[in-house]
Amino acid sequence: MIRRNRLLLATAMLAAFVLLQTFQAAAEEYTIGVLAKNGASEVITQWNGHGEYLSKATGISFSVMPVTFLAMDAAIKEKKIDFILANPAIVAEMGEKYGVKAVATMINKIKNKSVHQFGGVIFVRKDSLIEKLEDIKGKKFGFVKKSSFGGLHAGLYLLKTNGIDPEKDCLGYAEIGTHEQVVHAVADKLVDVGTVRTDTLERMAEDGKINMDDFRIINKVEDDFPFVHSTVLYPEWPLAALAHVKTDVSKKVSSALIDMKENSSAAQGAKISGWKQAVDYAPVLECLRTIGMKAGE
């Protein structure tokens, strides 16, 4: 009789423990702060599916919150969010400052090609006398924005590590505005040389806006990356956990993202191929330190 009562008590305790764990998991709520580089509505449209996907895949409640570049630091410091989805420069800086850690790296989908890296392209008109990096000195140099990693930082790191500072060594150092505008500025001879993010030239060529044969790539890297590039390649946007997030939760999020299928509604809504194991973002931080710049939008 005593043995039977003990067995019943143990069973009841186990059931209560399982119920408590289930309740706690259901009660947990996590917020993913997404960099709102093109406005809050785009964040919701593009990334809300990820919140729904993670909620279902992990059994934990996730929601998505747009966060502007200027508000990101405070949101992390004050723990208004638990995860961030932002460009690698922001995550690298926040990792050093607040212990933010990437849990997965995005596999982007560009022109039906799946890539988890990007870089910079330094290019000139086909008829330009510029043949190598050294020739850029004394010429007019155009870039996207001072805050753009792909549209300046990557190329600037390449130039500075080769002894060239375009802001000092070039005849002109012009912030053009957008990637496409930089390409047109080179084509129209408004600047002699430009730098943009990888895939810009191919995308514009496919859209009929330019002819790739009208341009030459300076310091062209020959590898199996599907887009022309002059610089080393850097990892794509990560989803990262803030320091206060429990390790087991981070692991669940990482596993769920890595398991995401390309044809899932979450991936299609975000216009990506999926996610992979988080890679090292130290090269991004090294780039920023070398060129003396901070992360931008």
TrEMBL record:
InterPro entries: Solute-binding_3/MltF_N. Residues 1-27 form the signal peptide. It comes from the Bacteria. Keywords: Signal. Pfam families: Phosphonate-bd. Residues 31-261 form the Solute-binding protein family 3/N-terminal domain. SUPFAM superfamilies: Periplasmic binding protein-like II (SSF53850). PANTHER family: PHOSPHONATES-BINDING PERIPLASMIC PROTEIN. This is Phosphate/phosphite/phosphonate ABC transporter binding protein.
